[in-house]
From TrEMBL:
Entry protein name: TonB-dependent receptor
Main location: membrane
Membrane topology: Multi-pass membrane protein
Keyword Transmembrane part of the UniProt annotation: yes
The keyword Nuclease is annotated on this UniProt entry: no
Source organism of this protein record: Rugamonas brunnea
Residue ranges occupied by any TonB-dependent receptor plug domain in the UniProt entry: 102-217
Length: 1010
């Protein structure tokens, strides 16, 4: 191998250009040139054996994650005895010498990871400017997060971003319909301490990886061939109460592949995050009821609910003996008797009480994680190596939200007849009224036993083993991946047993209307009961090979061939309490259920097999132009479900289980990608790519049953006034959720995409590097797992009448209206934007200066909720799918290194947007001149201002020991005010998806090497 400057390489076929250096693989004489300037130092990534992990193509060689500039990824000191070998690059199946390429990529190495101050993969990934639309931990507070966090590129939902661990797929977890639905990897299961670097391809990669990679790829590369030891400990303390965190870990390796022919690596880490409640921060402590100003006028935001304790009663009435239509009334006997609602969290609204649920939730749920890596590599001979790795992780998130809200049916004979006789009948008699149905609804909430708390425990296991080698002129690789994840949802507080509650009411020991005897409910708590257990398994076999083809003007062309076969199995088993009253044959004989729980479910057990084959050809056309052509064919079978039910109830009103079988459609598609890189002069690189993508509908969009899905996020006036299912005033109605298991044209169709990128990098001056990439993604037949959003349906009930069930018998025994959220192919979605990373470094009299500015500017984001339907957008506004797409997200950092001391200041910026609007009769009320709440008004929405925070970090390197201290959110800036009440968790006053509620915090990290 030779490294030459402005001279010829030892191979007479190749020579270096001006200001270039030529790297030649001694065995293949395959040259690679990279863009450098006159004072750059070229270097190579040392690879003593063929890497088995897929690597991302380095975008300009700049680590851009947090605006913290690293040296170009290839710019390390080279030595003449370094062996340069080809490595495989994420976004390409061809092994080559790592270099700057045709695909835009962000790279976070160990230094950037540590400088970020992140203690988990979620913290690290979700602070990147290119990330929008992910699931944060705050969404697990009754927002459908289910204890998981995800990655999402360029505002596309998480299901379009493929997350890999060492280039391998991981077992997925179901994502709530409010977060885009489908499946994604729970990145909380990835042990950050074991990660060597993170590489992020911000361009579609379906032509290599198949389904799921439409937005791009996030590849966590694990440490390897490490013989040293390293340990660390971190403590983070906010200025205000709540939210502190800590982590510690150790990594140690034994054996060097070069000399010992083996390596064993072990890594372990432990992390803890203390919860942060809404009451611990002023901006969220006001909950769902507060005064605000906009446009010079004062208003009240009132999202309090009618489920409270002491409870409300609602029922329909008419004058005695009359035949006119009934009308609804609402009463609160406790309010009538005492003049108040019995709690500081509840207030009067006419003749009933409304509860401020949002003041009782958590802004950040507490969590703890233990994770480890065991990795072994054996070099059999010069060309062949065996490897295996096992990643284990146990992650527990405890999320608390409001006390159990449970409307319950009341009547004069069978359901709480004592309450009807004690409170409803006297009201009727006193006012000369009658209730023809003799039914009422109890607007109940078990306030005095505390908030509902779920402990989500995720145990993940990822095992992979394989062989890499060379034979007969081919380089080959083969691997087996067995990845699994088990998620348990355990009751940890606030949920009570309905049967026990009912018995207490029947005996008179507990009166939910007056709130007396509520202390006795503590014995009815279901703490420790396992509500559900979900098992996700993904088993994959992969094989690939590559071979040199012919000599072209720029070097040797290479072909790569490969294929994979996968089986996905997803299963959820429920407690009998959760299966209760579903209306399906899987419901238990008992009608007992958890008060405030998501009961009425059916078991889920579905699987699907798929296979794919791909090829890729690298064509170095000239010494300045390189092109790559790749193609892939995927075949997804139908979804096999073990729980299929009749669509029509039997004579007893039960939908019977049918034989297991296949549902939905098969999905087959070919995809391709063409990319090129051109270096017309030594300081300019131009790159471009065009490709197609494909995504099969997720199995949870196909299998399952239409089941009770809780209540709407918002409170609405009755969509069909005067109908049987109407509730009094603005109320929360029922939601149904279910799949689309039909086949043919009535079933879900695969999503197709087209994407392109155009950009490059220039180095116009010493130390200055400017990278810019324009990208575009268009998705056709986009699957909307949540169907038509509830806000759209309730605003246009006649248009979407087919999605309403009116009347609907709620499992709790009262009559209401239900709205169905079912997946549909929603038409077309478009995304376009610009990613940039500008970096500068220079030496000065006070030390080494570094500056970096990187970000994403969104040009277009729109979608339709049905084929040919209205074009909607979330860009710079709160959209109909309850999400916001920020026009600009950017990080800017300045760093100074003087000797062993490094100081870095980083700014994080999000642009402003137009917040959620409200029609009249919903949640916005004018303020009267005397400061009291007036009548309901229409409100166009706040302008939520831009949000900027600053961080500082200082690090002193003592040698084998380093000490790092930092301050996050130096100026202690609160999140901006928003009035959104849907799309994330139950937090109000700010949007937990887009802002960190912790405020200023201080952290200290010690790191020792041995």
């Amino acid at each position: 191998m030779q490294v030459c400057g402005i001279t010829k390489c030892s191979d007479p076929r190749n020579s270096c250009f001006k200001n270039e250096q030529c790297l030649v693989d001694a065995s293949t004489y395959q040259p690679v040139r990279r863009l450098i300037n006159s004072n750059s130092r070229i270097a190579m990534i040392k690879e003593t054996v063929l890497s088995r992990s897929l690597r991302l193509m380095f975008s300009g060689g700049v680590a851009v994650g947090f605006g913290l500039l690293a040296q170009p990824v290839l710019a390390q000191q080279a030595t003449t005895d370094t062996t340069i070998q080809r490595v495989e690059i994420t976004g390409s199946s061809i092994k080559r010498i790592a270099k700057e390429g045709a695909l835009p990529v962000q790279v976070l190495n160990q230094d950037e990871i540590k400088k970020s101050g992140a203690t988990s993969a979620s913290d690290l990934i979700q602070m990147l400017p290119s990330m929008q639309g992910f699931v944060p931990s705050s969404s697990s507070v009754n927002g459908g997060g289910g204890g998981a966090t995800t990655a999402a590129l360029h505002s596309l939902p998480s299901k379009y971003t493929l997350v890999l661990l060492d280039g391998q797929r991981m077992a997925p977890t179901a994502v709530g319909s409010g977060q885009g639905g489908g499946y994604a990897v729970n990145i909380e299961s990835i042990p950050l301490e074991a990660v060597e670097r993170v590489e992020i391809l911000t361009d579609g990669a379906s032509a290599l990886y198949g389904s799921d990679a439409i937005a791009g790829v996030v590849n966590f590369i694990l440490k390897k061939n490490n013989t040293k030891g390293e340990a660390f400990a971190t403590y983070n303390q906010p200025k205000k109460s709540g939210g502190r965190s800590s982590s510690m870990g150790i990594t140690k390796g034994w054996g060097d592949l070069d000399t010992d022919k083996f390596n064993v690596l072990f890594s372990y880490s432990h992390d803890e995050q203390q919860r942060l409640t809404a009451l611990q921060r002023d901006f969220s402590a006001k909950g769902a009821f507060f005064k605000f100003s906009s446009g010079g006028k004062d208003y009240f935001f009132d999202q309090r609910t009618g489920n409270t304790e002491p409870a409300n009663l609602t029922f329909n009435v008419r004058p005695i003996g009359s035949t006119v239509d009934t009308h609804g009334v609402a009463i609160n006997p406790y309010l009538a008797a005492n003049g108040n609602c019995g709690s500081a969290l509840a207030g009067a609204a006419g003749s009933q009480c409304r509860f401020n649920y949002a003041a009782t939730v958590e802004n950040i749920p507490g969590n703890r994680r233990d994770s480890g890596l065991l990795k072994g590599t054996l070099q059999l001979n010069e060309d062949t190596k065996l490897w295996g790795e096992l990643v284990l992780s146990s992650f527990a998130m405890t999320a608390q939200f409001a006390p159990s809200a449970q409307p319950m049916g009341v009547n004069s004979t069978t359901r709480f007849p004592g309450l009807y006789a004690k409170y409803v009948q006297p009201y009727l008699d006193a006012n000369g009224l009658e209730n023809p149905t003799q039914k009422a609804t109890l607007g109940y909430r078990s306030v005095l036993v505390g908030g509902r708390t779920d402990e989500f425990v995720t145990d993940a296991r990822h095992f992979a083993a394989g062989i890499d080698g060379a034979a007969a002129g081919w380089n080959y690789t083969a691997s087996l991946i067995l990845s699994s994840s088990k998620i348990k949802d355990n009751a940890a507080g606030g949920y009570t047993d309905f049967t026990q509650l009912s018995n207490l009411v029947a005996t008179g020991a507990y009166d939910p209307v007056m709130g007396t005897g509520a202390g006795l409910l503590k014995n009815a708590l279901l703490n420790g009961v396992n509500f559900s257990t979900t098992d996700s398994k993904l088993n994959t076999i992969h094989a690939g090979a590559q071979h040199d083809l012919m000599e072209l003007g720029g070097g040797t062309s290479i072909i790569s061939l490969g294929g994979d076969y996968s089986k996905t199995h997803y299963q959820t088993a429920y407690s009998p309490l959760i299966l209760s009253q579903s209306g399906f044959s899987t419901q238990p004989a008992s009608d007992d259920y958890p008060v405030g729980g998501n009961y009425g479910q059916v078991p889920f057990d579905a699987s699907r097999n798929n296979w794919g084959a791909y090829t890729e050809i690298l064509l170095p056309v000239t010494k300045t132009l390189e092109t790559t052509i790749s193609g892939r064919y995927d075949s997804y079978g139908k979804t096999h479900s073990n729980y299929i039910f009749a669509t029509v109830p039997d004579a007893n009103g039960i939908q019977q289980q049918l034989a297991s079988g296949d549902l939905g459609n098969t999905s087959k598609a070919g995809t391709y990608k063409i990319s090129a890189r051109w270096t017309p002069v030594d300081t300019v690189l131009v790159r471009a790519a065009y490709g197609t993508g494909f995504k099969a509908p997720n199995i949870n969009d196909i299998a399952g049953a239409n089941t009770f899905g809780g209540s709407t996020s918002g409170s609405y006036a009755c969509p069909f006034p005067g109908s049987t299912g109407c509730l009094v005033g603005n109320a929360q109605y029922d939601l149904l959720s279910g799949p689309n298991g039909a086949s043919g044209s009535a079933g879900l169709q695969p999503e197709k995409s087209k994407q392109w990128t155009f950009g490059g990098r220039i180095e116009p001056a010493k130390g200055l590097s400017l990278g810019l990439d324009l990208w575009n993604v268009q998705i056709r037949n986009q699957v909307l797992s949540a169907g038509t959003p509830e806000q759209v349906g309730f605003a246009n009930p006649q248009q979407y009448k087919y999605l309403f069930t009116n009347p609907y018998p709620d499992p709790a025994g009262y009559t209401t209206i239900a709205y169905l959220l079912a997946p549909i192919n929603g038409g077309v979605a478009n995304y376009r934007g610009v990613d940039w990373d500008f970096t500068y470094r220079a030496k000065s009299s006070i030390g080494d200066l570094r500056a970096a500015w990187n970000g994403t500017y969104m040009i277009k984001q729109n979608y339709t909720t049905e084929a040919g339907g209205t074009v909607n957008s979330d860009l710079g506004t709160f959209g109909p799918d309850n999400a916001v797409v920020f026009r600009v997200q950017t990080n800017l950092s300045l760093s100074l290194t003087n000797g062993k001391m490094t100081n870095t200041v980083t700014a994080h910026y999000k642009s402003g947007y137009h917040d959620q609007a409200y029609p009249v009769g919903t949640s916005i009320y004018a303020a009267n001149p005397d400061g009291t709440k007036g009548s309901s008004v229409a409100f166009d929405g706040l302008w939520t201002p831009s949000y900027t925070t600053f961080d500082w970090q200082g690090k002193y390197d003592f040698g084998k020991f380093s000490l790092t201290g930092g301050v996050k959110n130096i100026f202690d800036r609160n999140p901006p005010l928003t009035l959104q009440n849907a799309g994330g968790g139950n937090q109000l006053g700010y949007d937990g998806r887009y802002a960190d509620p912790i405020g200023r915090s201080f952290y200290l990290t010690g790191n020792v090497k041995f």
